[in-house]
Amino acid sequence: MKNISQISRISLRDQVYLQLKQAVIHLELAPGEKISDKLLAEQFGVSRTPVREALKRLEDEGLVISSPGSETKVSLIDIEQAKHAFTVVAALNALASKLAIPFLTEAHCDELISINEEFEKAIMQENKYEAIKKDDQFHSVLLHASNNPEIEIALERLLPKIRRLELLKFNKVDGLSSIRQHNEIINCLRNGKQQELSKLVEDNWLSLASYLTKEET
Fold first, then answer.
1. What is the per-residue DSSP string for the chain?
2. Under a CB-based contact definition with an 8 Å cutoff, are residues 40 and 20 in contact?
3. Minimal CB count within 10 Å: which of 18, 24, 94, 208?
């Protein structure tokens, strides 16, 4: 696995867990790939215990699978699971945008515009990692403005279930569609049509879900 370096002993379990989670989500550890806790421990420069604890957490989140006396593997991408996750992610983001309305200011609108410009730049450069990062930042503006940390906690657990699919099926054309939808969200705020905000946000997520979970022909 690339980009693994020895880590400090501070919060060892969490550091191992976070690095492994990122490796799975970013497809550095591919779906179906076998995982050796011994080899990972050597790469991290730690004992096998924190690696095993990290793998157990990832198993609980559905990102790896293992069975007693058998090998551990990165879980395959489950399209049906992703469909269910997208429905909830869309609904939670829509709820957050609705709760955010009383707190949104012109500064929030300016921030959304700036982020969407950076998002478009990443899309045009076909930089999928940066594009997804900017898309997250765009929606985080509304999430943070909702002042409801429980929504963010719930999304943190759900997003890994769809992130691998986003990276696997990254497409410039679909990205351009998302840019337009972001602009509709921005225009909704600028024109004082906040009552439309929740639906626009939900539609943005559901259209992405429709593309990513579409059966190949």
1. -TT-----STTHHHHHHHHHHHHHHTTSS-TT-EE-HHHHHHHHTS-HHHHHHHHHHHHHTTSEE--TTS-EEEPPP-HHHHHHHHHHHHHHHHHHHHHHGGG--HHHHHHHHHHHHHHHHHHHTT-HHHHHHHHHHHHHHHHHHTT-HHHHHHHHHHTHHHHHHHHHT--HHHHHHHHHHHHHHHHHHHTT-GGGHHHHHHHHHHHHHHHHTPPP-
2. yes
3. 18
Instruction: For 12-74, give the CATH class.
Output: mainly alpha
Residues of the chain with pLDDT under 50: 7-9, 217
β-strand 72-74 against 34-35: which pairing, if any? antiparallel
**Could you state, in order of their start, the residue ranges of all structural domains in the chain?**
12-74, 79-212
- Residue whose token pair is 């879980």: 75
84-103 confidence digits (pLDDT tens): 999 999 999 999 999 999 99
pTM for this entry: 0.83
